[in-house]
Amino acid sequence: MTKKITAKDPKPTAERIEQLAQRVLVGDIILPEFQRPFVWKRRQILELLDSIYRNYPIGSALLWESRQELASKRSIADLEVGERSENYPVNYLLDGQQRLSTICGVLYWEPGDPKSVWNVIFDLKTEKFNHIDHNEELPAHQIPLRRLSDPAEYFRKISVIDNVDLRAVADLLFNRFKDYQLPLVTLGDMSINDVAPVFERINSTGTRLTIYDLMRAATWSPEFDLGETIKGIHNSLEIKKFHSFDNKTFLRSLGAASGSDFSSGSIDSLRHLDPDKLHECAEQVKSAAQLAVDFLSTEIGAPRAEALPYANQFAVLTELFRVLPSPDANQLREVKKWFWVTTLSGYFSGWDSGQMATDARAVRAFANAEKDSIEVTAAIPTASLWASKPFRANSAVSKMIALMFGQSTPLDLITGQVIDIDKSLAWSNDKEFHHFFPQAYLSRNGIGTSKANVPGNIVLLTSKSNISISDSAPSAYLNKIIEADGRESLVARLESNLIPEAALESALNDDFDLFLSIRSTHLHVIAEKLAGVGQDGFIEVPSEEMDDSDVDPTE
Question: Distance (Å, rounded) from C-alpha 276 to C-alpha 229?
Fold first, then answer.
């Protein structure tokens, strides 16, 4: 039986590259907003041009012929593109952006910045393409590629060349760029959900099309641009250093603000809202996000977004403050407990769509005074957590101890000066976090990195103090502090770093195992107190069952 051809079937053709470039510039071929910016290096630009000149294949381009009105770019290769046609369908470019951008850029560049990547010449003598960094007059044998877009000007410029061989090369260059054809495949008018996996599969950069990219395209209208909206939310949080959450975090909040929950399904449902409703939700999220930042700064001591153990905590807090913008003292206390419980338990490391729906209901029940607390089923690990999990910047348990430091105004062990907790919690580097028992010292004594690099062995030190300690045994550098400043001063500095005096003797005896046991128990007592553990609904499980990685869950 013969297969029936449908409008959605790919339609392969071939088209001259000059004509394709013209179609882009007049708005017949459109770059959707979910396409990434131009990323090619100068070498790649020259290699593509050389391939065209030598008539080598350069791959194909993929268009999506669609009646959907999606957000599109207003320029390509620093060139303004024409207004897109009011008649639909239109052609969205899915694959071939870098190549078509290069062709448009070099052929239609208007001299401006001489260091532009589009300022390319072809040397007739060497038959090589090169970038130049000036707009001055060139020798006749060096031809700016932009001349190829104007045949009359091109041949006027080369008419002064007497050398027959060079004229032949110039003719070949012109004909190659006029006649070179690019294979073109056009997809029919399928839905954006259907075309997304096609785009992901063929995307030459290997970068997946994200849900944010899809939703920006799917919700776009002349009255609403999701990209600009979320950019506005980012900007409103920048002054307090909470602008670096990824876009999906705010999409989750928008999904919840629309009356649903935090799941991808709820995010996808945003496409069905009219622009007025989308604007309303966005304004609510923007205001609530600012309240969530105030809470995190003042009540938790988190000075910036990077300090949060889980980005999804921010999405939930935003929904909470959207529904409950002015919590009373008792409600604030419960919200703080919720934050520490979800951090200590690693709750968000396995956040699935069922939990997202449950949490949205729990937040609203609490905000509407139907419940006295934000109900969450959390499994609390044992104190061995602090001695078993690796200390690293993207670890929730590491970020928790850092936030706990922030609650205690930590002092440098050597100098007694106050540590800049804001700088430490930026997590741009870990120069402030150091090992109380130096790793090199432990290594000499047969204790490997996996046991040495744990939260229970971490304190805050200035880089200068860390250098002075180097690989010393704790007994050596601690006794120096006692001799210089007295035991009482040392105890105060240790306690500011969440090390109890009970652990001091084990450190003076260089007993790492005992120190780690005492310190881990102490840290756990502090963490449980912050989380309000002991109430109904919280159970203890072995810490090995906790996954503390800070990644978005797979739904």
Answer: 13
Strand partners, 539: 379
Closest by CA position to 472, among listed 515, 498, 510: 510
pLDDT tens digits along 100-155: 999 999 999 988 899 999 999 999 999 999 999 998 889 999 999 999 999 999 99
- Our measurement of the distance from residue 41's CA atom to the centroid of its chain's CA atoms, rounded to an integer in Å, reads 22
211-219 vs 226-238: helix crossing angle, rounded to 10: 120
Q: What are phi and psi of 287, to 5 degrees?
A: -65, -40
Phi, psi for 232 (deg, rounded to 5)? -65, -35
Residues 185-212 as b/e (b if ≥16 CB within 10 A, e otherwise) read bbbbebebeebbebbeeebeeeeebbbb
Q: Angle at Cα 160 formed by Cα 157 and Cα 162, nearest 5°?
A: 135
* Span 207-236, pLDDT tens digits: 555 778 778 777 777 688 888 899 999 999
Cα distance between residue 119 and residue 116, in whole Å: 5
Task: Reduce the DSSP state of residue 511 to 3 states and report it.
Answer: coil
Domain ranges across the chain:
1-209, 219-372, 385-545
334 burial (CB, 10 Å; 0-12 / 13-18 / 19+) is middle
Contact 437, 452 (CB under 8 A): yes
| Whole-number pLDDT of residue 540 | 40
Residue range 335-364: mean pLDDT, rounded: 95
Q: What percent of the chain has pLDDT over 70?
A: 88
Closest listed residue to residue 335, CA positions, set 539, 531, 527? 531
Measured distance CA(497)–CA(500) in Å, rounded: 9
What whole-number distance in Å separates Cα of residue 543 and Cα of residue 135? 66
Tens-place pLDDT, residues 21-37: 999 888 888 887 767 67
Task: Count Cβ atoms below 10 Å from residue 540 Cβ, excluding itself.
Answer: 12
Residue whose C-alpha is closest to residue 56's, from 106, 92, 17, 109: 17
